[in-house]
UniProtKB/TrEMBL annotation:
Acts as an anti-CsrA protein, binds CsrA and prevents it from repressing translation of its target genes, one of which is flagellin. Binds to flagellin and participates in the assembly of the flagellum. GO terms for cellular component: cytoplasm. This is Flagellar assembly factor FliW. The keyword Glycoprotein does not apply. One of its GO terms (biological process) is bacterial-type flagellum assembly.
Length: 148
């Protein structure tokens, strides 16, 4: 399949790059099909809408920046995604011109089932995380000292 993107122009996708989000992503519920693009030279991944060339999210493996990051995936979420073994966790980041101001959303990770090619953004309840952790300085962001 070939799609048109704002950032990369035309891309030819392989089946293993395509993921279905049954309920979309919060705020973008109408968009249910995405391509997961891995950047070989950087720790970033991109989640690109297949239908809307202007809709994409920059993702990162949260464990690279926050090794102690953890949460329990509720059974109903795992069941909805068809997860029995393999799971991939990524978080949306907001890149700023000054990289030290970039943030990562640890409150709502995106959970992928690479076997079924399904995904869902999970909002964690009763969690110490929030939507704008700094990419740098783990301890101050988790214990709330950064103020935001």
């Amino acid at each position: 399949m070939i799609i048109e993107t704002l950032s990369w122009g035309k891309l030819e996708l392989k089946d293993e790059q395509m993921y279905h989000f049954a309920k979309g992503i919060p705020g973008f519920e109408e968009e249910t099909d995405f391509a997961l693009l891995i950047m070989e030279t950087a720790p970033f991944w991109y989640l690109q809408s297949i239908k809307d060339m202007e809709l994409s999210f920059v993702l990162v493996d949260p464990f690279l920046f926050y090794p102690s990051y953890e949460f329990e995936l509720p059974d109903e979420e795992a069941e909805e995604l068809g997860i029995s073994a393999d799971v991939v966790i990524r978080c949306i980041i907001t890149l700023k011109e000054q990289v030290e101001h970039s943030t990562i959303n640890l409150l709502a990770p995106i959970v992928f089932n690479p076997n079924e090619h399904t995904g869902k953004q999970i909002v964690l309840h009763r969690s110490p995380y929030h939507t704008k952790h700094k990419l740098i300085n783990e301890q101050s962001t988790i214990d709330g000292k950064d103020g935001g």
